[in-house]
Structures are given as structure tokens and as C-alpha cells.
Amino acid sequence: MHILPSRGFRLTMKKYLARFGAKITLDDISNLDQAIDLSLLINNLKEDLFQATFPCGQILDIGWYPEFSTYGSFVISLIRNQDWQNPTHCEKAKNWAELKIALENILKNLES
Q1: How many Å is the Cα radius of gyration of the chain?
Q2: Is residue 81 within 8 Å of 93, Cβ to Cβ?
Q3: pLDDT of 40-84, one tens digit each?
Q4: What is the CB neighbour count within 10 angstroms for residue 44?
Q5: How far is CA 110 from CA 34, 56, 67, 83, 104, in A?
Q6: How is the chain split into domains, by residue range?
Q7: Which DSSP string do the residues of the chain spell out, in sequence order?
Q8: Which residues pair with 52 in a beta bridge?
Q9: pLDDT for 3-26, tens place per residue?
Q10: What is the value of pTM for the model shown?
């Protein structure tokens, strides 16, 4: 079952996260053109791309590590109690398709 349709990132995430009462606090990832290869966007791939907070105190965080590096990857983390050193769930993705799958996995973890 796919949670996230292939529509625009911002609309999809905003609608889905609203079901959990989440608030998007940072969204630079929506400004990136998913039709363009990531290697052409490298100057925009930074550690802080997306963040949402949930009423339960959890944080969904997406960044590119190491930032501005063609050797990097998206890191998608679910943070509880501001414990950034020990995410409750963390996944990596090298491209947009993998990012979608990783987000689905993270959000399933949030639901359980």
C-alpha cells in the first residue's frame, strides 16, 4: 500500500501529516524540481530540507548528508523527545523514488 501519491511533495505531505495534527515547520524540499536529476540540484541539497512536528512531540526531519555532496543521500529521521542523537527511526535514500519509499516506512512507524 502506498501512502504517498506521486503528486507534488508539499501538497501530499501537508495533507497526509494533517491527519496526525502535524505542523510543517520547514519546507525547502518542495522548491526542488523532482523532474531534474539530483546531481543537477546538488547546490540546493543541504542538511535542513524539511521538518514537521507532531502533537506527541515527535519530529519528522529530512536532510541531505553530507550536504552539497554528490556522494550524499537523503536522511529521513523520526525524532522523539528532542533526542537528535538517537532517532526512533532513520532511513536513507539516494533518489526521489527511494525517498518516497523511506517516507512511507517512517510514517508507518509513526502510526504504530
Answers
A1: 13
A2: no
A3: 999 999 999 999 998 888 999 999 999 999 999 999 999 999 999
A4: 16
A5: 25, 10, 26, 16, 10
A6: 9-111
A7: --SS-SS-HHHHHHHHHHTTT-EEEEE-GGGS-TTS-GGGGGGG--S-SEEEE-TTS-EEEEEEESTT-TT-EEEEEEESTT-TTS-SEEEEESSHHHHHHHHHHHHHHHH-
A8: 24, 60
A9: 444 445 666 677 777 887 889 999
A10: 0.86
